[in-house]
């Protein structure tokens, strides 16, 4: 079994990005600047956004973190977005999800200038992605493509089963892997909560992407021998033995599935770190496009 080490791979990517930033600096060109908006105090969201900002600093990007109160009005949030849209120093920005219930998420995502939408969530960019046109591919599916590529995992002609149809992961992942692209050309089955006989389907898979958000959902008896397993889940489970008070658990029952898998991502240290690296990559791309 080969562990798909997202921590190491993301460190490699960040090093490559840092070299490009150093080159920009040498040529006295503008370095990439990422801004992130976070609304409220959701513990996981704050952790993720802080990690994104810290990653910017590590590669030499500029970063701006905008923290807004939980009770901010939709109108005020849309105004904050417009400020970033017209700020020439900002190359790209994200609005961390989820948002409080009183704010219309779709309205917010549509307010982001598609040229600065480094999360790739704007309908214009989702449409371009679906048409295989140049755009910002959302960080999580982009990170999975990169991990598969860097570990030389063949996808062409393979049976891929995606579990979960979220707009952030499952849906784009199924589209991308079925496309005619370097990591793609797979026969993809997108499964979800209404799928019948799921185990029968997953047992036919050469590659399984578990992105449904149920801890340890995928068990060894659902997996064929030597399958490639990508675990996108990160659920915080209470654990008094940990300093933080919780441990992170994926959507895959790691120990039993690892015995059958040819390749598998750990949680933490698999897909998660890749997501941050690809957000940086998108921000660098936004900077180049604007230059
Ligand atoms: N919440 C969970 N994943 C993401 C992501 O990739 N981007 C943003 N903005 N919010 C998220």
From TrEMBL:
Q: Which reaction does it catalyse?
A: (6R)-5,10-methenyltetrahydrofolate + H2O = (6R)-10-formyltetrahydrofolate + H(+); (6R)-5,10-methylene-5,6,7,8-tetrahydrofolate + NADP(+) = (6R)-5,10-methenyltetrahydrofolate + NADPH
Its keywords, alphabetically, are: Amino-acid biosynthesis, Histidine biosynthesis, Hydrolase, Methionine biosynthesis, Multifunctional enzyme, NADP, One-carbon metabolism, Oxidoreductase, Purine biosynthesis
Q: Quick one: which pathway?
A: One-carbon metabolism; tetrahydrofolate interconversion
Stretches assigned to the Tetrahydrofolate dehydrogenase/cyclohydrolase catalytic domain: 4-119
Supply the InterPro entries for this chain. Aminoacid_DH-like_N_sf (IPR046346), NAD(P)-bd_dom_sf (IPR036291), THF_DH/CycHdrlase (IPR000672), THF_DH/CycHdrlase_cat_dom (IPR020630), THF_DH/CycHdrlase_CS (IPR020867), THF_DH/CycHdrlase_NAD-bd_dom (IPR020631)
| EC number(s) stated in the UniProt entry for this protein | 1.5.1.5, 3.5.4.9
Q: What does this protein do?
A: Catalyzes the oxidation of 5,10-methylenetetrahydrofolate to 5,10-methenyltetrahydrofolate and then the hydrolysis of 5,10-methenyltetrahydrofolate to 10-formyltetrahydrofolate.
According to UniProt, the name of this protein is Bifunctional protein FolD
């Amino acid at each position: 079994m080969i562990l798909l080490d997202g921590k190491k791979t993301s460190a490699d990517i960040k090093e490559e990005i840092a070299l490009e930033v150093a080159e920009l600096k040498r040529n006295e060109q503008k370095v990439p600047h990422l801004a992130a908006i976070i609304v409220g105090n959701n513990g996981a969201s704050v952790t993720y956004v802080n990690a994104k900002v810290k990653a910017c600093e590590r590669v030499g990007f500029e970063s701006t973190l905008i923290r807004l109160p939980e009770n901010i009005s939709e109108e005020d949030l849309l105004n904050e977005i417009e400020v970033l849209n017209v700020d020439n120093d900002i190359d790209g920005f994200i609005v961390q999800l989820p948002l409080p219930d009183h704010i219309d998420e779709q309205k917010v995502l549509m307010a982001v200038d598609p040229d600065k939408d480094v999360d790739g969530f704007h309908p214009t960019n989702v449409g371009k992605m679906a048409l295989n046109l140049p755009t910002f591919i959302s960080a999580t599916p982009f990170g999975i493509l990169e991990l598969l590529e860097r570990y030389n995992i063949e996808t062409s002609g393979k049976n891929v089963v995606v579990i979960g149809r979220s707009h952030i992961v499952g849906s784009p992942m199924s589209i991308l892997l079925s496309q005619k692209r370097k990591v793609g050309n797979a026969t993809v089955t997108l499964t979800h909560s209404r799928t019948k006989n799921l185990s029968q389907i997953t047992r036919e898979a050469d590659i399984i992407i578990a992105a449904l958000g149920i801890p340890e959902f995928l068990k060894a008896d659902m997996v064929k021998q030597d399958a490639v397993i990508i675990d996108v889940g990160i659920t915080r489970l209470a654990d008094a033995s940990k300093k933080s008070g919780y441990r992170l658990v994926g959507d895959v029952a790691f120990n039993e599935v690892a015995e059958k898998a040819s390749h598998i991502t750990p949680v933490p240290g698999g897909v998660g770190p890749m997501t941050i690296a690809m957000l940086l990559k998108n921000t660098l791309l936004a900077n180049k496009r604007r230059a």
